[in-house]
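User: Predict the structure for this protein chain, please.
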Amino acid sequence: MVSEKIQSMGGNLTDLLIEESNLLTQYGEKHPEVIKIRNKINVLKSKLGKMSHPELEYITLLRDVKIDVGLYEMLITKHREALITEADKVVPVAIVEPARNAVLVKPDRRMNMLMGLLVGLMFATIGVVLAESLDTSLRTAEEIETYLKLPTFAEIPHIRDEKSDTSPFLLLSDSHSPYVESYNEFLANFNRYDPEKKIQTLLFTSVMPSEGKSEVISNFAILQSQNNNKTLVIDADFRQAAIHKLFKVPRKPGVMDIIKENLNWRDVVKKPVESGSSSMVSLPD
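Assistant: Here is the predicted structure, written as structure tokens:
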């Protein structure tokens, strides 16, 4: 095995030789730095020359390998620098032949408009179908009958403002109006549905407020009383009571007073003055 001292001397010699090669690349043969490095190299060579032949041969081979590796790495670096320099050069551009009879290829406005129209119609159709399939509301009498499996007595138009205090008796003054005919149809279908008059109590309700419950109740009660049917109208809407306004009767006492004060309901009912019938009374809320 080669001693550590010999390896160190060989490494120093290799480093000096590499440094000499780099200095020769930058300076000339007679530059002071080059001469100084060569003197150091000669001193190391003289020391190594006194060693045994195998050790010296090993050091020489090791030196040559390091020198070759250093030169190879230097050449690779130079090559890369040359490639970068070559890439930075601007290549001149020349027009070989000018364009003639140019035709616009893109965009094709007609095709784009047609495709946009088709896509818009497609998405609109999908949106309508989707909205229709998700809409579970009941809009017609036929849909209501199909869903509830109950008959529809009549379709009554909503012609009176809910905020108005107009008496319902005025709404039935014209016996030939379509509005009155709808109530007559309502009463006729109801009597046909219950010919033996077993139904004694009717509940009028709706999903939302201000949908015309009070108006329908009032006019239906008027028609019943005009047919000599004893009718009692009970207003159980404790939030937005309206029956007492339509019939123009006092609101108090009413249903809540019967419940709270344990009153006799016969003492609380009121007969509308404008009804013209002795068979209809009103019980406010």
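The two ends are 119 Å apart (CA to CA).
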